[in-house]
Design goal:
By secondary structure, the chain is an alpha+beta fold. It contains 9 helices and 4 strands. It binds glutathione.
Length: about 210
């Protein structure tokens, strides 16, 4: 059994979606970020940077932090969504999500969604970067069905929950035909819907 320590955020949803996709039995332990649960010593023991998500695999008592590392662990354990022959491509798109898509769109959420009016510089900078990320993903998905190639992989599972916040971004997903096609197709997968709803049964992936 896998225990998932998490909150209802895009980084959190990456792992609930992956667990649903591979069909593992899992238990969710909620970390209330508003209550600073992430700084409690027992959590810091398994998450040195005080961030969700983290998993503990109770089969071998291994705890893993960092969502990219968790996705790789679950993919290797299950043998799914991380084809050995395609690993070089999958790793690049996964690392691009970890290094660019998540951190940059996360800043856009901070300035544009949560704190508008506080910093014109921050709002403009991350709006522009988010728009570029949409353009770059759209160009990639014009040549390729999924991010790493013809197959759905952990690179898509890592990236999709960030685009699922498209209503916050105000970039206009409808203007990016290939990104929209990819987003809508993934949003119909039953495991993705279950993983998206893992903390709130009433939410559905927002459609463009
Ligand atoms: N690179 C980390 C980022 C995780 C992350 O930023 N988690 C946020 C929520 S989405 C968090 O735990 N924030 C709490 C805090 O920073 O105090 C990963 O992908 O696992």
């Amino acid at each position: 059994m896998i225990e998932l320590f998490t909150a209802d955020t895009p980084n959190g949803k990456k792992i609930s979606i992956m667990l649903e996709e591979v069909g593992y039995d899992y238990k969710v332990t909620k970390i209330d970020l508003g209550n600073n649960d992430q700084f409690k010593p027992e959590f810091v023991k398994i998450s040195p940077f005080s961030k969700i998500p983290v998993i503990t695999d109770h089969e071998n008592n291994e705890s893993i932090f960092e969502s990219g590392a968790i996705l790789i662990y679950l993919a290797e354990k299950s043998g799914k969504f991380y084809d050995k022959k395609e690993r070089l491509k999958i790793n690049q798109w996964l690392m691009a999500q970890m290094g660019t898509v998540g951190p940059m769109i996360g800043q856009h959420h901070q300035f544009h969604h949560y704190n508008p009016g506080k910093s014109e510089f921050g709002e403009e900078r991350y709006f522009k970067i988010t728009k570029r990320i949409y353009q770059e993903l759209d160009s990639r998905l014009k040549q390729s069905k999924f991010l790493a190639g013809e197959d759905y992989t952990i690179a898509d599972i890592a990236t999709w929950p960030w685009i699922a916040r498209h209503e916050w971004h105000d970039v206009g997903l409808n203007n990016f035909e290939n990104l929209k096609r990819w987003y809508v197709e993934i949003s119909k997968r039953e495991a993705v819907i279950r993983g998206f709803q893992f903390m709130n049964k009433n939410q559905l992936p927002p459609q463009p």
